[in-house]
Amino acid sequence: MDLLIKGGTVVTDSHIFKADVAVENGKITMLGQNISPADNTNVIDASGKMVLPGAIDAHTHLAMPFGGTISSDDYFAGTRAAACGGTTTVFDFVLQDFGETMVDAVKRRDALCAPNAAVDYSYHVAVKDVSGDLIDSIEDAVKFGVPSFKVFMVYDFGVTDGVFYKVLKKAKECGALIGVHAENNELVNMLTEQYLSEGKTSAWYHYMSRPEFVEAEADMRAIQWAKALDTPLYIVHLANKDGVAAVTKAKDEGYTIYAETCPQYLEFTCDVYKREDGRNFVCSPPMKGEASRIALWDAINRGDIDTIATDHCPFQSYEKDWGKDDFTKIPNGCAGIENMYPYMLSAANEGNITFEKAVELCSANPAKIFGCKDKGAIAVGKDADIVIYNPKTEFTITNDKMHSDCDHTIWEGKKLFGYPEKTYSRGKLVFDNGDFVGEKGWGKFVKCSIK
Ligand code: URP
Ligand code: ZN
Ligand code: ZN
After folding, report:
1. Using one digit for the tens of pLDDT, what is the confidence trace for 331-341?
2. Kindly report the CA angle at 411 between 410 and 417, in degrees rounded to 5?
3. How far is the centre of ligand 3, averaged over its atoms, from the C-alpha of 59 (Å)?
4. I need a surface site. Which of 20, 303, 409, 444 has the fewest CB within 10 A?
């Protein structure tokens, strides 16, 4: 036995119980009362602490070429920050190039990620081109261990309705899962043009050009196609109340429609775009009104939100400043990889959700939905991806305490109740009381299978 975490309170997605946790060769090997250590076992006293499965962030954009630049956390900085926020697996988006097979896209990206990742990682492929035989490369990627894909309905690399439909159909045939960034591109472009022509250029008009109905309409359309094909669909970064209602309805009708939201949509409203630093909050979809924020929390408590992820896509202040006088020049995205688990666990500590729910949303469900069978629980046989969490620590987020390379955080000043003390990745200590203690290249590719 290499590691024994003694006297803590273990949390799973369904239970909370006192147990010691034994770890050997990176795996959880025993759970029980009064487990005795072996001679060389590293014994950690976790009394008064909670012992949680590491979080799985199913939505990150590390070193992604986007918005005229590259997101500012590379694979090392992003996964270092993840480790320091209790996240032990990240799913990053690979943007397929035109003419490239899905597996080649993954391999191209993996050459960058593998030597740098500090925690385990997997991928979703963002599909651009399914012309000719490329559609069949979806099946090859499933066999390779990357069974999840994303289509964008917006941006210059967004797909047409026809391509989206074709991808959904292929996914049904080969057991892949399609995620969607749902916003109506035509409406975004039309409203953007209108506001710019009226000289309305501040960050507020980022929200005004992508209001509630622009997202909701696309959610409904995407859900309609998934229903028509009777194939599962995963809606990423859901942020609006009518989209939530459409998800609830589809689930009630028995369809497999998964919904992900992000901490920024649970915390902030579109009012942030009126702030002096509003451009730092520019992401797509934008934060919406208070009714949408409340609808997301209600959906969490009803069980209609399946996962929380970050959409971590940071840009430095000087890059955000490109859009001071023109919101269309602000690179879209915010940092959040280090904040997700502490934020959701703080919500549990404050009584807004249960700790089991936080574990379900941030760890157990992403493991189940994306098929990483060794992750997502404190249980015998699982990877020893473990967070020791002190529910009594009070922590105020400031950028100087973060471990990302980004020079600012939208979470500046946010007070959290409880905070991770230690993070283990497959039994190796990677975060210890405020410090990253892991190593570049430790992270391994996680082969997924959702069949
Ligand atoms: O603004 C965002 N969300 N940037 C990252 C790309 C995306 O849409 O997920
Ligand atoms: Zn997106
Ligand atoms: Zn994203």
Report:
1. 999 999 999 99
2. 170
3. 6
4. 303
Report the chain's mean pLDDT, rounded to a whole number.
98
Q: What is the dihedral of CA 426, 146, 102, 406, to 10 degrees?
A: -40
Amino acid at 272: V
Does 451 have pLDDT greater than 80?
A: no
- Whether ligand 1 lies within 6 angstroms of the CB of 423 is answered as no
Please list the residues that pair with 124 across neighbouring strands.
Answer: 93
Q: Is 402 helix (H, G, I), strand (E, B) or coil?
A: coil
> What gap in Å lies between CA 347 and CA 360, rounded to an integer?
14
Q: 333 in ligand 1 pocket by Cβ < 6 Å?
A: yes
The pLDDT value recorded for residue 280 is 98
C-beta of 215 in contact with ligand 1 (< 6 A): no
326-352 per-residue burial string, b: 16 or more CB within 10 A, e: under 16: ebbbbbbbbbbbbbbbbbbbbbbbeee
Q: pLDDT band for position 35 (50/70/90)?
A: very high
Q: Is the pTM of this model over 0.85?
A: yes
d(CA 160, CA 190): 17
Name residue 16's beta-bridge partners.
Answer: 11
CA distance 367 to 372: 5
